[in-house]
Specification:
165 residues; 76% helix; mainly alpha
Length: 165
């Protein structure tokens, strides 16, 4: 299991506890308590298995991040619509944006997601777009190797995808 997903889960649980503590303090002080605000929702979402719906929405919204829209707002929308972990959605949004830019992304996303994003990018942006996505993923692979992680499945995916070009 990847340490990053464990750390994300723990951070999410800590944030949820902090949010609940803040609500309890408000209640004890006689202040009105509202648990419906955006930040309360977006940070209380715990880890869930990533679905195709989540991946697809992250891709669509990742293009918006690439075009300059606010990543936190988009991540909150993904969390509301799909019940995806807020922090995970941010990671996926930045990964899609980096693939479209051809720049490094440092947080790991699933190989399934990368394959899906390669296919989507090729269909929407053609060969040049796919080359940027491959370059970004190669930079990611090198970064992960430098951190001591095994990235064999990513290298295989990139090699297989490059052969199609």
């Amino acid at each position: 299991m990847q340490y990053e997903s464990i750390i994300l889960e723990l951070l999410s649980r800590i944030q949820k506890l902090e949010d609940e503590l803040a609500l309890l303090k408000q209640a004890l002080n006689g202040e009105p308590v509202s648990s419906n605000d955006e930040l309360s929702y977006e940070k209380s979402n715990s880890y869930k298995k990533t679905t195709d719906e989540m991946l697809d929405l992250c891709y669509q919204y990742g293009k918006k991040v690439h075009n300059g829209e606010n990543v936190k707002t988009l991540a909150a929308n993904i969390a509301k619509k799909t019940n995806m972990n807020y922090n995970s959605s941010i990671i996926y949004l930045y990964a899609v944006s980096a693939m479209l830019d051809g720049t490094i992304y440092k947080r790991a996303i699933s190989t399934k997601a990368i394959q899906k994003y390669f296919d989507n990018i090729f269909h929407e942006y053609g060969t040049e777009g796919l080359r940027k996505a491959l370059h970004a993923t190669r930079l990611h692979i090198n970064y992960r190797k430098d951190c001591g992680h095994t990235v064999d499945s990513l290298e295989e995916l990139c090699d297989k995808t490059e052969q199609k070009l």
